[in-house]
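Next comes one such specimen:
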Amino acid sequence: MKFNNREEFLTNAGIFEFSLLVVALILGWVCSVQPTEYVIFSWKPLIYGLLAALPLFVIFMAIEQLPISSVQKVQQTVLDAMGRFLAGCNHLELALLALLAGIGEEILFRGFLMTWIESFAGYYWGLVISSLAFGLMHAVTWVYTIFATAAGFYFGFVFDITGERNLLAPIATHAFYDYLAFLVIVYEARKTQPDEPDPKESEQESFEW
């Protein structure tokens, strides 16, 4: 999908993430599963979820330093796809986009898919299949798919991190991690493209995402 400017990127990205929530609710209705059943507000899973984002982010930063061509290709692909658009966003826009991603993707993959598969195949199959599906949805490159699948497993474990299943925990982990990753992308984008683009050029050029 191509976008011509920041506003178009944010609008379409927001619609996409919100559509995942709608898909989760529809599939839940069809399969007699309530995807939001485990969305229960409590400070404990929220705090645990936020803290759980930190080791994931540290791993992300460590992987970024690896002098491996396939890893560097992922970095460049993400930077080319989103860097210029995210660089023009303020903190609130980045936080809202990250929150939408956390809510939409976690309710679909953990709230619906994982719990639905668990209902007839057990916990481990639910964790494995939902994580693989999560990775495939992020199939930008094969390396990125592997990273996303591993993250899916991590979010699945965080789902039960407090001992009492609560979807608020992986939503918080996912959203906070995405926000921190966005900040890194913004930093890298502004470092490589420090000058503001000419508005007329922005209208003529488009970038893929």
DSSP finds eight helices and two strands in the chain.
